[in-house]
């Protein structure tokens, strides 16, 4: 029976960082994953998605510039897109495991559960540890509808060998919209069925509204306020039954993805045997990211109750857990976090939406505009560009910023710097930026 100082479940952004740091402090560390090593971001999330997106970006620019400098046939070769992404990601599992082993971490593979607060078993092996770290991330939610087993999930997108004629996404959030934009540009007929009345529900209504228009321009059939009730297999195709406006509808599609959200991966771990309380948001943790019910357990990354499921946050939380395990007393301090949906155009946001600010009765000025006629958009023959900035009237501090543009992912970072360092709106507007650039447009926001 192996005995550890720290045993970590999950080898993604969060788990591997904690393992590395604890080992460097001379602790005896073990780690386990029930899939290949490396986690979601590097293999089934951010990185392969962005690699695949490079072709969509090239396609979009070339298509927009046709007749203004670009000639000839412009098309996406899906097989090459997949091969390109796989070239970058295929060696990650082995490299991650080798890196951990080289630091002295004992690496395991398997699916296990807790016997008690100090004992974890898998495949006939028993592990004892003084401390445990839960870093098992999230997985797609179960829809609980008949025929759900016919639906694909986000990891399947990265192994989709051939493109069918028609694909449907159930859920118009980050994943549904990023994937649907990629497939639509590759020539697939795409439908998005979203239960809410806007796409990208956490984002500002104003910018999400432009994404709806941009998605429809691209030929994506977006159906809002609709709920899928069952999935039927009909020969080689799927028949989706959904309700909208109190009536039943149906749709035939070749493939359908469940992109209706993700939930913490905790069920199979039987954490209740260890006295660790979990909730809808994952493992319930305090400000030190220590379990609220069992002091030898920590949680970080997507699976912790304090997290927003974004890679930089998983890293930030892992840093806090590693510090607390190695003798420092470190609190997790919430920060203003920018995030972006990598559609084309991109939708980015940070801080409060106008509605959230209004709900709090804040004394604010809202600066917003459809900026599609500005130079940066016209230069690309593009169509959409808009922003909304919410500013506190007393302090001139930025409470929220929201942008839809071809470079929103970068422009929003300037707002992240301002908001996390108490710069005023006037200060970032007075800053000298490179010209002509997207950042320079902030002077006119
Ligand atoms: C399609 C997609 C695109 C995304 N794009 C972005 C993006 O552009 N930007 C961004 O910031 N974020 C993005 N995210 C979110 C980001 O990937 C996650 O926030 C991040 O990967 C979480 O890291 P983590 O270490 O907490 O969990 P993970 O990386 O998910 O790691 C958890 C690990 O635990 C393992 N595991 C699970 N259950 C068990 C078990 N029972 N026993 C042992 N091991 C287990 C898993 O196999 C996995 O290796 C995306 C997510 C998806 C799905
Ligand atoms: N670019 C990025 O940073 C990025 C990209 C992908 C994922 N992520 C992270 O992963 C998390 C999960 O992403 P996601 O897209 O799975 O979830 P999400 O919460 O962003 O979107 C899920 C959508 O599905 C809808 N929905 C839920 N049930 C439904 C049903 N039965 N029928 C129709 N629609 C339904 C919801 O209303 C919501 O709009 C995100 O919160 C995000 O933090 C980030």
Description:
This protein has helices spanning 13-24, 39-44, 46-64, 78-89, 92-103, 154-157, 174-185, 205-217, 311-325, 354-359, 375-379, 408-420, 425-430; strands at residues 2-9, 29-33, 106-109, 112-116, 119-122, 125-134, 138-140, 166-170, 189-193, 221-223, 226-234, 237-244, 247-253, 255-258, 262-264, 278-279, 282-283, 297-299, 339-341, 346-351, 364-370, 386-392, 398-405. It is α/β, with parallel strands linked by helices and 445 residues long. It is 30% helix and 27% strand. Strands 1, 2, 3, 4, 5, 6 and 18 form a 7-stranded mixed sheet that branches. Strands 19-20-23-22-21 form a 5-stranded antiparallel sheet, with helices on both faces. The protein folds into 3 domains: 2-139 and 263-325, FAD/NAD(P)-binding domain; 148-260, FAD/NAD(P)-binding domain; 345-444, Enolase-like, domain 1 (2-Layer Sandwich). The structure holds flavin-adenine dinucleotide and nicotinamide-adenine-dinucleotide. Flavin-adenine dinucleotide binds at residues 9-15, 32-35, 39-41, 45-46, 49, 111, 135-137, 154, 175, 265, 268-269, 301-302, 309-312, 314, 342. InterPro entries: FAD/NAD-bd_sf (IPR036188), FAD/NAD-binding_dom (IPR023753), FAD/NAD-linked_Rdtase_dimer_sf (IPR016156), Pyr_nuc-diS_OxRdtase (IPR001100), Pyr_nucl-diS_OxRdtase_dimer (IPR004099). Disulfide bonds join 41-46.
């Amino acid at each position: 029976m192996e005995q550890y100082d720290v045993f970590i479940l999950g080898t993604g952004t969060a788990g591997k960082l904690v393992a590395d740091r604890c080992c460097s402090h001379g602790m005896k560390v073990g780690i386990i994953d029930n899939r290949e090593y490396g986690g979601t971001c590097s293999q089934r999330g951010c990185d392969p998605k962005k690699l695949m997106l490079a072709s969509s970006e090239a396609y979009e620019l070339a298509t927009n510039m046709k007749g203004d400098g670009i000639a000839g046939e412009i098309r996406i070769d899906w097989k090459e897109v997949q091969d390109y992404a796989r070239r970058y990601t295929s060696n990650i599992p082995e490299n991650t495991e080798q890196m951990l082993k080289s630091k002295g971490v004992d690496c395991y593979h398997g699916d296990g559960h807790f016997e008690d607060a100090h004992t974890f078993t898998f495949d006939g092996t028993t592990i004892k540890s003084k401390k445990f770290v839960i870093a098992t991330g999230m997985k797609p939610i179960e829809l609980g509808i008949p025929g759900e087993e016919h639906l694909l999930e986000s990891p399947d997108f990265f192994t989709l060998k051939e493109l069918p004629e028609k694909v449907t996404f159930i859920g118009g959030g980050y994943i549904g919209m990023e994937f649907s934009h990629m497939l639509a540009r590759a020539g697939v007929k795409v439908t998005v069925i979203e239960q809410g009345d806007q796409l990208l529900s956490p984002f500002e209504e104003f910018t999400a509204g432009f994404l709806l228009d941009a998605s429809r321009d691209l030929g994506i059939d977006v159906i809002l306020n609709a709920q899928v009730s069952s999935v039927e297999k009909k020969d080689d195709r799927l028949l989706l039954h959904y309700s909208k406006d109190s009536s039943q509808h149906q749709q035939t599609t070749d493939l359908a993805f469940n992109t209706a959200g993700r939930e913490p991966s905790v069920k199979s771990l039987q954490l209740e045997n260890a006295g660790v309380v979990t909730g809808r948001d994952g493992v319930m943790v305090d400000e030190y990211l220590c379990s609220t019910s069992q002091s030898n357990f920590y949680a970080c990354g997507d699976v912790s109750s304090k997290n927003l499921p974004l890679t930089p946050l998983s890293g930030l939380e892992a840093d806090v857990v590693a510090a607390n395990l190695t003798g420092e007393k470190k609190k997790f301090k919430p920060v203003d976090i920018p995030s972006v949906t990598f559609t084309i155009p991109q939708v980015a946001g940070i801080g409060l939406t106008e509605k959230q600010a209004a709900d709090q009765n804040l004394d604010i000025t809202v600066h917003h505009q459809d900026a599609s006629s500005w130079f940066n958009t016209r230069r690309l023959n593009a169509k959409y560009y808009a922003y909304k900035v919410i500013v506190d009237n007393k302090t001139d501090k930025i409470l929220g910023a929201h942008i839809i543009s071809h470079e929103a992912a970068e422009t929003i970072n300037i707002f992240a710097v301002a908001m996390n360092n108490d710069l005023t709106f006037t200060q970032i507007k007075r800053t000298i930026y490179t010209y002509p650039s997207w950042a320079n447009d902030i002077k006119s926001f």
